Amino acid sequence: MLELRPILSALWRHKISALLIALQLGLTLAIVSNALVVIDERTERISRPTGVAVEDINSFGFLAIPEDYDKFEAFRLDLDMIRSLPGVASATISNHVPLSGSGSASGFYDAPNMEVGATSANYYTVDEHFIDALGMKLTAGRGFSPEEVMQVGATSSERPKVAVVTQKFADEMFPEGNALGNAFFMGGDDHPIEIVGIVERNLGPWPNSSVAGRGVFYPAIMDQWFYYIVRAEPGQRDAVLKLVEEKLAERDPNRVINADTLQEQKDQYYAGDNTMIKVLSSVVILLTFIVALGVVGLTVFWITQRQKQIGVRRALGATRVAIGRYFLLENLIIAATGILLGFAAAQIFNGFLVREFDQPALPLVVTLTCALGLLGVSLAAALVPAIRAANISPATATRSV
């Protein structure tokens, strides 16, 4: 404690440089703690269970060249052929591909002719193979029978009578837990659609949207929007992608085939989140390095300025430990001041992010962890110069006296 007064006196004489380091530490704490929260939120978002077998699924679409092309006949022939190919576990046809960023959504009600209180959800048109083809888990009820699957053309007026829904949709539409066997209504009309099955999870085409996880599957095949979704046996995805693409082109050359893996589509959808994680991680590392560099530079500068003072203290009996402790304590005071400022700045900055950009709130434990980490970095950065100061001999320091 006897060292505290001369340390404070020395800091006051160099208050501008000390304040700059403290402000740098505070700003770093505010930015790093909020950046880590965003990184954690984006990482958790990307790593959520999707409900489908992403690593095994390919999707295929085609553009027919003839204007009078019979798409429904093509669907039947293509799917029969695809399901017979080696390495194919299952295949279905759907109007949209999960995790692709392209889909359809609507409002659903638990009573007819309602206009308010809708539950928004994604919806798909699929055939009877969709649960197996997507690798989803049926938790209640059943899937579709072939007889329930409709063919829906541009002028068709037929509407589905049954549906399979996700657990999240079932829980929100019927919170009392009696979704199976109950009916819901689409778009505020009076046409009932009975829930015959419930699947555990499907994030849908927009995993980052408010409707993610709420899904409705209808037994229908549409000739306006369609994709073949093919699940390969484990480890066979890439081989199946190439084989199916070749066989589709061989079976009917009067069309242009496009093919993608579901993993590629998922990666493309989350590209912005991955970029954000990389950028913020780089910012965290860079700011931490700059703080360490600033502390080292300032400590070395002060040691150089005080060589004579250090030599005198050593000549008067100060130990190396006392000299090293002096500079570490000096650094600790600066760091603690900066961290206190950073705590306040972190909360203010987070309040702005929550209010303007709907970012997650900053937990106190994250700020404390970052504060301790920066304190450790600051002390570690000052350690080598402090040891160097402790090793200055009285003769060397006072040679010019």
Report on the structure:
Strand 8 and strand 9 form a beta hairpin. It is built from twelve helices and twelve strands. Helix 1 (4-13) crosses helix 10 (320-357). The protein has a six-stranded mixed barrel. A four-stranded antiparallel sheet has the order 2-11-1-12. It has two domains: 4-47 and 271-397, no CATH class; 70-253, no CATH class. The protein has 401 residues and is α+β, with helices and mostly antiparallel strands. The mean pLDDT is 88.
CA-CA gap between termini: 29 Å
Strand content: 15-25%
Report the helical percentage: 40-55%
> Which spans have pLDDT < 50 for at least 5 consecutive residues?
none
Rg of Cα set: 33 Å
Q: What is the domain tally?
A: 2
Largest sheet: 6 strands, mixed, barrel
Strand elements, count:
12
Structural class: alpha+beta
* Helical stretch tally: 12
Q: Which descriptor suits the 3D outline?
A: elongated
Q: Calculate the mean pLDDT score and round it.
A: 88
N-to-C series of helices and strands: HHEHEEEHEEEHEEEEHEHHHHHH
**How are strands sequenced across the largest beta sheet?**
3-4-10-7-9-8
EC number: 3.6.3.-
Family: Belongs to the ABC-4 integral membrane protein family.
Keywords: ATP-binding, Cell membrane, Hydrolase, Membrane, Nucleotide-binding, Transmembrane, Transmembrane helix
InterPro entries: ABC3_permease_C, MacB_PCD, Macrolide_Exporter_MacB
